[in-house]
Amino acid sequence: MPLGALRPSPLVEQATQHLRAQITQGEWPVGTRLPGENALARTLGVGRSTVREALRALAGAGLVQARQGSGVFVIATEPAEDWPARLRRAAITDVYEVRVIVETQAVRLAAARRTGEDLAALDAALEARERAAEGDDAAFVDADIALHAALVAAAGNPVLADLFAEFAPALREGLIGLVEMLGLRARHRAPGQETHAALVAAVRRGDAGAADGILRAELEETLAHLHGGRA
Amino acid sequence: MPLGALRPSPLVEQATQHLRAQITQGEWPVGTRLPGENALARTLGVGRSTVREALRALAGAGLVQARQGSGVFVIATEPAEDWPARLRRAAITDVYEVRVIVETQAVRLAAARRTGEDLAALDAALEARERAAEGDDAAFVDADIALHAALVAAAGNPVLADLFAEFAPALREGLIGLVEMLGLRARHRAPGQETHAALVAAVRRGDAGAADGILRAELEETLAHLHGGRA
DNA sequence: ACACCACAGGTCCTCAGACAACCTGAGAGG
DNA sequence: CCTCTCAGGTTGTCTGAGGACCTGTGGTGT
Fold first, then answer.
1. Among A113, A217, B8, B106, which one is most buried in terms of CB atoms within 10 A?
2. Does domain B11-74 bear CATH number 3.40.630.30?
3. Which SUPFAM superfamilies did the record assign (chains A, B) (predicted)?
4. Distance separating alpha carbons of residues B69 and B101, to the nearest angstrom
């Protein structure tokens, strides 16, 4: 089944559409192992690199996944639905509660696994947050979220980092409103009470319990404000 | 800026992530023409084919578009990338680790908040799981996941429930493989060791600590098997 | 009979080089 | 001023080669 001899569009496009059709039309169900690159190249009448690029495009779209030494497998038959929209629709307190769960456990892992690079990133994010305390509300919240994202990233689990990134926009919205309401009060604390610096320090010395405790206290105080603000 | 000399993941993946970051973080706004393939190859320290495949993956994800003879252009900065697809692509051990975090904290909440309806649903799910222990692997895994979903639902946080539902398909795949490997061994336990019944009982009497402990032991044993299965 | 181990084959991964097809902008010519 | 030509740069495509990785197979020892 050679693809068009004359080329109305790049061969990669044609190959991609051809393979995508096989998948979406159920010819290759989820879990199927696709034919090898050489086989596909022969079947489609194109070069191996063209086949590889077509497969890579489908991988980018989330339809297939290549496993080195094993093969290319179908992992979905259609592009999937949209989780962020559900988050925006949910109650901010529910979102925040899940954030507390994810982040407190993440810092426990971070205390055990953080690398030198992680610590450097944390220091930078901490300093940026302190600088942003002088700026406007949105910038401060962004810097705050960036610091918390760096904490989660230090756990060394990409799924966890992605999960937190998913929550970030929803958090941002709610937190900006909160900061506006509370003003500068929550931004500056007396020396020794700056929880974020203490949190990073706990992660640095690998004290999971302390990190968990500090973060939980901080987040639950904010959660209380969120509850209060609604009631 | 050469990419990692040692390869924890395929170079194409690293290159894709690197380029995606440049786009999503606003370094290259919509409409930007990316550096040429050769330039990117030099910058990233990889071959041109590798760069091409990375760009093709981003094109498949809808972030860039290549125009022959002209260049590659950014057409979107939002990773239209859906979360479930990322889960399927991630390492099963990373996914499972996050699942442990979510579920153990969820049962803590469940122990505090479960309603009568929640308990009835848990009993039903528990019984269904025991019945399914006789059936085939897929059915058993489905019943097992349904029980765990009921536990999470008892926490009374819809965001948490949605989150677990998002993980279910990815878990299902990995767990079926595991059950096939271990056979019936893990299904039946001596009376008094059936962790799921004990878990539901702990939730019923509102003992968050016990529920957390039982579940954590159960899940981490499975996680160890997953780690072992790969090594 | 079972468990463990080395090996071979197949598969994806990466690179280098070459040429074709195509677009764009600069300069020559009208 | 407009049009045309053309050179340079860019993406598109193919080929060949070798490396890394997974998996099933067969042998070996217990």
1. B106
2. no
3. GntR ligand-binding domain-like (SSF48008), Winged helix' DNA-binding domain (SSF46785)
4. 50
CA gap B73, B207 in Å, rounded: 57
Distance from C-alpha of B185 to C-alpha of A22, rounded to nearest angstrom: 39
Interface-testing mutation among A93, A163, A164, with chain B (most B C-beta atoms within 10 A): A163
- Sequence spans of domains, chain A: 11-74, 83-230
pTM for the model = 0.62
The bridge status of strand B64-67 relative to strand B71-74 is antiparallel
ipTM over 0.85: no
H or E stretch covering B155? none
Residues of B in CB contact (< 8 Å) with A are 10, 12, 16, 49, 52-54, 56-62, 68, 81-90, 94-95, 97-98, 101-102, 105-106, 109, 157-160, 162-163, 166
Whole-angstrom CA distances from A195 to A129, A168, A199, A213 are: 12, 20, 6, 10
Topology match between the domains B11-74 and B83-230: no
Q: Determine the Cα–Cα distance for residues A174 and A5; give it in Å rounded to an integer.
A: 56
Nearby residues of A217 by Cβ (< 8 Å), 6 or more positions away: A195
For residue B130, with 0-12 CB atoms within 10 Å meaning exposed, 13-18 middle and 19 or more buried, which class applies? Answer: middle
CA A69 / C1′ D25 distance in Å: 17
Kindly report the CATH class assigned to A83-230: mainly alpha
Rounded to whole angstroms, how far apart are CA atoms B72 and B77? 14
Query: What does each C-alpha distance from B66 to A60, A141, B34, B80 come to in angstroms?
Result: 15, 36, 10, 18
- Model pLDDT for residues B101-137, shown as the tens digit of each residue: 999 999 999 999 999 989 999 999 999 988 887 767 7
Tell me: pLDDT of B6 over 50. Answer: no
Do residues B146 and B196 lie in contact, with contact meaning Cβ atoms separated by under 8 Å? no
Contact by Cβ (8 Å): B60, A15:
no
